[in-house]
TrEMBL record:
This is Phosphotransferase. PROSITE patterns: HEXOKINASE_2. Pathway: Carbohydrate degradation; glycolysis; D-glyceraldehyde 3-phosphate and glycerone phosphate from D-glucose: step 1/4; Carbohydrate metabolism; hexose metabolism. Its EC number is 2.7.1.-. The chain crosses the membrane at residues 6-30. Residues 289-526 form the Hexokinase C-terminal domain. InterPro entries: ATPase_NBD, Hexokinase, Hexokinase_C, Hexokinase_N. Belongs to the hexokinase family. The keyword NAD does not apply. Residues 85-282 form the Hexokinase N-terminal domain. It comes from the Eukaryota. Keywords: ATP-binding, Glycolysis, Kinase, Membrane, Nucleotide-binding, Transferase, Transmembrane, Transmembrane helix.
Amino acid sequence: MSNNDFTYGLATGIAICAGLFSLGAAFVYINNQRAKNAKAVAHASQPLALSSIAVSDDRASTSSFVPNETHKISPDDPNPATLVRLQHLFEVNGDKLSQIAKHMVAEMKKGLATDDSTLKMIPTHVVRRPKGDETGSYLALDLGGTNFRVCEVTLDGRGGTRVRQSKHTVTDDLKNGTGAALFDFFAECVKQFLLSDDQKEVTDKDLHTNEFKLGFTFSFAVNQVSINSGFLMGWNKGFSASDCVGKDAVVLLQDAFRRKRMNVSVTALVNDTTGTLVSHAYSAPDTYVGVILGTGTNAAYVEKIENITKYKKDPAGAKDMIINTEWGAFDDEMVVIPRTKYDHKVDRGTANAKSWTFEKLISGMYLGEICRYVLVDLVKTGEIYIAGGTKSKTLSVPHAFETAFMSRIERDHSLDLSDVRTVLEDLMHIPGTTLADRRLTKAICEMIGKRAARLSAAGIAAIVTKMNKLDGCTVGIDGSLFELYPHFSNRMRDAMHEILGFSAENIVLEQARDGSGQGAALIAALAGKLTA
Ligand code: GLC
């Protein structure tokens, strides 16, 4: 058992206790009419048992708590009719997950043969994973979503790395301004990073005369024509900088360095999923899949080149190549995943409406916003925050309800949900919340967070099935959702079991830390050996 497992195990235990306690509390009779309504709704929606949302932890959700005349409702509990209705909307059961995984395998196959699939299945030109004996120091620039980092990665030749880095926030103005301003900002950050190295004492003149090699992790869909060239297919994750779509991201960056008279060569253009796969394989050689579950979501995996029938180049004797699936766009045709009216509202509010719809059900950029739309709706129908819902201006501000708030809410196991109160009253400015309001808010976060985890598990199940690796492999996963969102990994594992049965035991889901930065450095370092 890893430390992570232990932490989750502990959290699970606490959650079960908290859940059982709230169940106990719910058995008190208060409102006869409410109990009758609940009975009617629960009956209509069989087999959706209320237990799976009334109990804080999913693993404790097998007992059946369907309100009836003997299981009375307390005023501290949310209205069961509301809970059942919402659970019905957000639940993706095991059968549906299997259908989703099956459809994804079909789309993967289609995307390997043609460009006519929701899955872009981009050949990355990375044909080998590192062996762990590589050495040297390399620069990497990592643009993920919310953050942008400059790193210097030193490989120790024994699977270990040392990283010096600077981290920056990409402001909304930069994301939505001109491409030149965005890329100038990146170049300036690299310049300051190099100049701030106390040990090497790099001067302004050195920036011009010395050559610096750099791996660029650019976490957007690009049409990758070689290891250091890729044309941006379209922005997502809240970016819309002008004059970039259709352009080569490496040329855009290289031009910015030139404007600053810096002698930096971009030797590799890498997606964060590819970087995660490569860097995790550096220390865990059985890694065949890299996944990002953060601001956005995506996966890369190792495919046999003979299966990539649309790849017309000479693979230089290589047998395998990493494929960037761009699964964020999976099911953009809306054929298999059930969407709620809240998902459609979120989609309509994005700069890339009707695309990257899988990502919009899963990733950190959108979960809080789905939740906010549900809450706004329930305020309108009078089902939540009766005292202060209409008074909060914040609740109607797009993206004001952050995914990090959901994380905080799900982590609150106090009896009166005091931290949930802090989030709602102090951060969302909703005065006078009741315990029932807070429990309902928490249940909604659970439903949305759980659906995200289960859908991402369906994606992984599809990939390992397509690779024929059900007998065992490691999946390196980076990103704040997997790392920080309570129960996310356990919910994924449960869903993997529902889809793959016992084979799920052979698939190791492992936290990959800082995969994208290190991976870019590794690929830059080994460009000659690792690429076709
Ligand atoms: C978006 C990008 C993809 C990236 C993912 C995670 O889906 O299109 O390239 O890997 O976000 O950052």
